[in-house]
Amino acid sequence: MTAIRAISLHGMPLFAAGTDVAREVCAAIDRAGEVLASGDIVVVAQKIVSKREGRLVALSTVEVGEEARRIAAETGREPEMVQLILDESTELLRTTPVAIVARHRTGHVLANAGIDASNVDGGDSGTVLLWPVDPDASARALRAEIAALTGVRPAVVIADSMGRAWRVGTVGTAIGCAGLTVVEDRRGTGVDLFGRTLQATQIAVADSIAAIAALAMGESDEGTPAALVRGCGAWVGEDDGPGAASGLRPIAQDMFR
Question: What is an example of a GO molecular function annotated in this UniProt entry (predicted)?
Answer without folding.
Answer: metal ion binding
